[in-house]
Amino acid sequence: MSAWVLLRGLTREAGHWGGFVEQLAAGLPGARILTPDLPGNGVLHTETSPARVEAMVDSCRRQVAGQPLCGPIHVLAMSLGAMVAVAWAAARPQELAGCVLINTSLRPFSPFHHRLRPPSYPALLGVLAGGDARRKEAAILRLTSRIADPVVLVDWVRLRRVHPVSSANALRQLLAAARFRAPCRAPRVPMLVLNGAADALVDARCSAALAARRGLPLAAVRCALLVAAAIAGSTLMLVRHEVGDRAEAKDADALAYVTAFMTGYTTLDPFHANDYADRIQAQGTGEFAAMFKEKKNEIVVQVARAEPTEGAVLSAGVQRWNDNGSADILVATKISTRASDGKSTIESGNRWIATTIREGQQWKISQLIQVI
Q: I want to staple 78 with a disulfide (CB 3.0 to 4.6 A). Which of 23, 94, 102, 352 is the partner?
């Protein structure tokens, strides 16, 4: 019997999973589902929140150790909870069979203004300050959901009143998240990254960057109505990855990586041109790495002078696997640019053949050709 550990994020607790625990149980018959709280939240709200993610791992492991488990442990975690999952996988990989990481961000893969979107700052400051429980929870709900049922707010207010999280603990959790860095080595534990494209708190590009830098599969969700179904579906996908057909899993891994890479490659931020170039160069090998290194300074200048763009992958498919273990992926992309009038959007499409190869635990791009 497998076990699933569910971890929530900043100031959230087990009760905030709502009906999802039952949905997951229905999708994984026979699995044992555990919902431990991070110190300072939920039933542990009287404890002091650690200012280090690694200490949160220790707390979760102690809670799980007290449960009768006889199968592999999977972790499904959101935001700060996903950082705990990454740290757990790095410190004790033998304890975990897989992780699903939802709407999270890691240093140094993403800049701070992506990890915590500036428009959310006023609402977060209001939450950290003293005040009415309903006002705080309403602010959090606006940041994290577009069409939540009104009963959700009622439940969240009740949870805050029963298990109040102190402002000091909230600040410690925020500090822990801000200072946490991705482990130097790619995880030895299978991982799946999931994000919501319209997340108002954490920029969706953070998940894409994590997936690209670590060669992890990425599932993006654009419609809030489908989030619960996507989480359950992605969770089942991870289970199938462990026991299913290896060739299909290999195709899926390569496609997920190239999709994440091309999304980042076609998304330009002129205010962070150097970060863009460093991020792309880190994912290169062979011919692509040599070409990018040679033209890096020129590329930085071009990006700095360009208009901001938002890239998206419309479709991708494996064209063939090569004798050296690399895969040629045919990709169709769309680039959206805001017109100079600030009102209309200009869109353009391109097709590419991206050759990707796995080096150790990380996928990389060895060749990138635009198809005319």
A: 102
